[in-house]
Amino acid sequence: MPGGADVIVVGAGSSGCVVAERLSRDPARRVLWLEAGGDKAAATELRLDRLPVEAGSQRAVHYPSRQGFDLPRGRGLGGSSAVNGGYFMRWHKSDFAGWPWPQQEIAAAYDRLDGGEAGGGSMHVAAFADDELHEYARAFENHWHDQGFGDSTGPWPDVGVVRVRSNRDGWLRRSAAESIAQRIEGRKNLQLLTDSEVIGLRRSGDRITAVVVGEQVIAADEVILCAGTLGTAQLLARSGIVGAQSIGVWEHREVLVRFTPATPPAPAARALLQSVLHTDDGIEIRCYNGDFADFISGVPATGPAMGVALMHTGEPGSIAWDLTSGLVVDLGEVSRSDREKLAVWAERVREMLDGPRFAALVERSGGGAVIDSVVRTSQHAWGTLPMGVDTDWLGRVTAVSGLRVLDASILPTAGSSGPHATVMMVASYIADQIA
Ligand SMILES: Cc1cc2nc3c(=O)[nH]c(=O)nc-3n(C[C@H](O)[C@H](O)[C@H](O)COP(=O)(O)OP(=O)(O)OC[C@H]3O[C@@H](n4cnc5c(N)ncnc54)[C@H](O)[C@@H]3O)c2cc1C
Fold first, then answer.
1. Is 415 in the pocket of ligand 1 (CB under 6 A)?
2. Residue 190 CA, ligand 1 centroid: distance in Å
3. Which residue lies with its CA nearest to atom 23 of ligand 1?
4. What is the pTM of this model?
């Protein structure tokens, strides 16, 4: 373990990979990079039809929620990017209204990751092609076209039927760790230590001066937290930097509409999510290509489902931490108007599943599709330390000096798509500014 560094980056997930790579391009900057979990994921764990987040997985940790849902997060090199659904979509352009960053620089940061119009980029992003679509996704797109929705194509999604762009090499998820592996090879000023959980931050007055790993205290001019929304909140609460009770957190709450597959069932899918619908009132309808039990070991089989997700939720949840319970997430209440909106779209999804496009795919003898009464989670928690409030627009924590947060914690607003591409875009934009 080294005695110190110019910069310590905590966490080697989606944001940490981008930040450690960018900051260590300058050979004069000594970057120490600490990851709680193990080394790179094996190819079998990167299959797009498998999310290795089951209980006991070496690639995930699980946080409890007051609602009783398990909240898995990626652990080890690649973090959540190595275990997630492989959906890599930009937010809508309109989601950045109010951000002080130039639109063309936001676009340039996304381009570096997803290759823009042509696809590619460091994350090897490609939309699923027509002949790669699962039968559910094909029926889904046909249905919404019948309903008058057009296709939203290109790198910037908008209202309409959106073919998912995915970070992948064929049918393998490309993690953030793979996206930088070649570039960091041989860099002597970058030291990555896996199995090295940071358990606390040391401060002198109002300045963060060091991190604690096991019994070692490692000093740095600057500490950059990329431990993920829940990991960063835990570390900050444990170190007394933020109040340990009621840290606000945002989530895309989701209702599932379940159905029984027809006999014989559609063939097994090679990817969880290939097509979504974005509505003009902030809903994302997700065509999951099977039962979650098909994609995650140990999950009880409950039948395939479509998801109806509230992308611009009105109410935050909260996070509490104490020595006895550790971190506990309360996903919060869903307001009456949001519940009504979810109910309207869930009913339209039920009609879709009972309609002609799904006639050969859904077993109807038992009464057809059923709307689940539980409002679930998308595993997207963000916004505990929003930029412009708890940090500046370069992730510098306002309460103390010497500390930045560059992971999903600092997203200041909700987005109309999932967070992964935007978490990495934000890390890339800021790392470029401060390098
Ligand atoms: C199961 C799942 C599926 C998802 N699917 C999608 C999807 O398809 N599309 C989408 O847009 N979004 C998806 N998401 C969300 C998306 O993956 C995350 O928003 C994004 O990866 C968060 O990046 P991050 O850098 O903030 O954190 P992470 O990628 O989670 O990285 C945090 C890293 O920090 C490490 N760490 C934590 N604490 C410490 C510590 N104290 N010391 C050292 N290291 C530490 C962790 O081990 C981890 O490697 C999904 C998330 C999950 C969990």
1. no
2. 22
3. 14
4. 0.98
